[in-house]
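On clarity, I found the account of how folds are encoded harder to follow than it need be. What matters is that the chain and its backbone geometry are given together, residue for residue. I therefore recommend that a typical entry be quoted early in the introduction. An entry of this sort, consisting of the sequence and the corresponding backbone structure tokens, reads as follows:
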Amino acid sequence: MADRLDTPRESRRLVLPRIEEDASGRVSESIARFLGTPRFILWLTAFCLVWIAWNAWGPVDLRFDKAANGFTALTLMLSLQASYAAPLILLAQNRQTDRDRVQAEQDRQRAERNLADTEFLAREMASLRIALQEVATRDFVRSELRNLLEELQAEQAQDGPDEDRAPRGNDRLEPGRRPGD
């Protein structure tokens, strides 16, 4: 495609597919997780044993790494594997550190909220205790009513039975009226 002056530069650039930002991190973590397993050690050991056995005792014309040269190709393969494994492990550790940092921040925030909630509940309980000390209990109200009843009975006993002053069921006082009005 020839350079044209009437075409914007953005459209002339080679467009590469967008790779999800976290995809490489997930892949590196899965590889690093596999590299740290006994299964990987067994597979790598088996690979090296097959490589050495084939190149030491296999058909001479099909050997591709000479034992006389110290299995140079195998050494290069293992060096290549190690050179890729180290950065992948570091990347996985960095991602784990980031996750740990986020988790620690969330734990700190949760602990602060729990502390604030606990302090609030403690204040509320203290205010309820103070308020309950000022509230009349059932026994207190009963004793006061009993005392009032005894006082009324004592007054009635002193005044004597007074039939014309005894209230009748339909003789109710309206608010603001006094007896005898």
Observations:
- The radius of gyration is 47 Å.
